[in-house]
Amino acid sequence: MYCDALVLYLIHQFRGDRTISGIYHLLKGKKSSQSVQDSYLFHVKPFFHSCDDLDRHSFQTLVERLNVCGWIQSAGSEQMHFILSTEGERQLTRFDLNKLIPDGLCNTDQVNDEGNFWLKLQLSVQTISALQYHQSAFLPITRQPSVTESVRKRIMKASLNRDQLASQLHHELHQLLLPIPLTEADLFAAQLTGFRMTGLTTSQIADSTGKDPYECRILFKSALRRIMKEVAEHKATYPFIAGLMKQTASTLSLTAGETFHLLKEGLSLQQVAKRRNLSVSTIEDHLVEITLKERNFNSSDFLSHELEQQIVETANQLNTRQLKSIKNQLHDEISYLQIRLALAKNTVQKGSLLIGENEETSKR
């Protein structure tokens, strides 16, 4: 099953360095510094926020089943840290990894906006469909004020009558879905709500089609990211839908972006923390995120090249990304921040590969 291969692959990539909750938070897209950094450090960035409606119970049930099957095992004495067993590695090799990661999933530049964009697009389709049938009263798919207000303004700004607006939106969606693989396009379209036609959830689609619910989530997210990439690159071709997207997309989280702006003004970490009324540790989290996502950022004020090399060599010798294990092998003057920065820089230099450093499993 797809879900088996997905979790086996992620456990393989994490190599027992994080608890199983780390994988759950990755799939959910938890906006914590740990989850964001893990998506880079373990080369699993496409899977970040790929299953945002996943509930913990069903995920935990899946992990327990893999454990009962003997495909995963505890990583030493660490509780809830797992690695693949020999049989688990064998099972993973039977699955085509190219099918595990659809091409669209790798379009992660808009990941911070994809949740809001999807809600706005759904509400736009629902609203315009209702207007076309002269229905001003309907139950909206979301009542989030920021989403409803954004859609209202976008429709008002269009300066088109209801039929023209419906035609424009239909044309843009048709053009966007046309080049997308049929399975992905169908999954995407089936979730849109129109007049007297309620969109399905990915779980409902999985139940009705017999597909793996995890695969449905991944294929849908692949379609969504393909669409967002196309719209971002050709705004003039999709004027209505482009208006639903953030005009200045950034892979940085909003709060890390604010910290980055202050750092560029020459403020120290302590000064930024004081200015923003945040803890220094939070600003350090932002610094690591900036290092991962802003390729031209110079972190030499915080980490020398010699120290970086020493940290990376130690991590490679230990074959781990666990900060405590690395710190225990280094002299006390080296901080956890410097270790995190060194690992982040090393990840960026190698590139966010989908297959980890020790990709022996795929070669067996």
TrEMBL record:
GO molecular function list: DNA binding
GO biological process: regulation of DNA-templated transcription
Source species, domain of life: Bacteria
Domain Helicase Helix-turn-helix span(s) in chain numbering: 256-343
Keywords: Transcription, Transcription regulation
Xref: InterPro entries: Helicase_HTH (IPR029491), Sig_transdc_resp-reg_C-effctor (IPR016032), YpbB-like (IPR008308)
UniProt keyword annotation of Nuclease present: no
Protein name: Uncharacterized protein YpbB
Species this protein is from: Sporolactobacillus nakayamae
